[in-house]
Design a protein that fits this description.
Chain A: Pfam families: SnoaL_2. The structure holds two protein chains of two kinds. By secondary structure, chain A is an alpha+beta fold. Chain A has a single domain, classed as Nuclear Transport Factor 2, Chain: A (Roll), CATH 3.10.450. Helices cover about 20% and strands about 40% of the residues of chain A. Chain A contains three helices and five strands, in the order H-H-E-H-E-E-E-E. Chain A has a five-stranded mixed β-sheet, with helices on one face. In chain A, about 35% of the residues are buried. By secondary structure, chain B is α+β, with helices and mostly antiparallel strands. Chain B has a single domain, classed as Nuclear Transport Factor 2, Chain: A (Roll). Chain B is globular, with a radius of gyration of 14 Å. Classes of the chains: A alpha+beta, B alpha+beta. The interface between A and B is medium-sized, with 24 and 27 residues.
Chain lengths: ~140, ~120
């Protein structure tokens, strides 16, 4: 998988720039590689993509399983508040994919993302919270 | 007197207490230095503007209720989704009722205390 964004998965950094954050998030999600996508999160970060708050190994396992079905994510940033080493981002998203029975699946909603800048200057996901539906196929 | 906490679950209640006491310094002490507050939708305030806004708002004797409906807490970062109401008076002195579902981002400082980094009271639309 090739990315047009500059991302080093040994030292992942979503950067301080909101549009770059969104672009990296989209490209890595759409790569279908849950292991790489999980690297955009800190070890103790919480993802609600599954409909449940997941962290650590459970979060990684979900990303691997879910992204393996190659869902296509589109998202645009609606607002971003940056306070030093913390940021709150609002996005509007759609996801198109196939469910477990091979039927087309379409999901849309808004998502709140909290990002943190670590002591080494790298920005990573701390919490994601999609609303208006979980991303799991029914 | 600022009341900070190591327990993020208590932060909202302590904030309501300081707010309803009209204690400007205690309220402001519950924010990080870099904090951003979006008390008017789409208008983020930081630094002195945020601090001054608290003084102005509390001068009208507002009463707040706030209850977290969801919380997501990592080691040093928390996202709270909060149902809140404020009863205050508008600039003409007429009663004014405000309410919303806020999104609060809190960060735990080196001293172990939680503080607001982002206070977006109309965040959940």
């Amino acid at each position: 998988m090739s990315f047009t964004v500059d991302i080093d998965f040994d030292k992942p950094d979503l950067t301080a720039d909101t549009d770059t954050q969104n672009e990296i998030f989209l490209q890595v999600f759409n790569s279908g590689d849950g292991e790489l996508f999980d690297k955009l999160y800190r070890a103790d970060s919480i993802s609600n993509f599954s409909g449940q708050p997941l962290t650590g190994a459970a979060r990684l396992a979900f990303f691997k399983e879910f992204l393996a079905t190659k869902p296509k994510l589109q998202a645009e940033v609606t607002h971003a508040w940056v306070a030093g080493d913390a940021a709150l981002i609002g996005v509007r998203f759609t996801i198109d994919g196939t469910d477990q029975d091979g039927k087309p699946m379409h999901l849309e909603g808004t998502c709140t993302d909290v990002l943190r800048r670590g002591a080494d200057g790298r920005w990573l996901m701390a919490v994601d919270r999609p609303v208006a539906g979980s991303l799991l196929p029914e | 007197m600022a009341q900070l906490t190591h327990d993020v679950e208590k932060h909202t209640a302590l904030y309501v207490e300081a707010f309803n006491a009209g204690d400007v310094d205690a309220v402001n002490a519950m924010y990080t230095q870099d904090a951003v507050a979006v008390w008017e939708p789409g208008v983020p305030l930081a630094g002195q503007a945020r601090i001054d806004s608290v003084r102005d708002f509390l001068s009208r004797g507002p009463r707040m209720t706030a209850v977290p409906r969801q919380s997501f807490v990592t080691d040093d970062t928390a996202l709270l989704v909060v149902d809140w109401t404020i009863d205050t008076t508008d600039e003409e002195g007429n009663p004014e009722h405000l309410e919303g579902v806020g999104l609060d981002v809190l960060c735990r400082g080196a001293d172990g205390n939680w503080r607001y980094a982002i206070d977006d009271p109309y965040g959940e639309k």
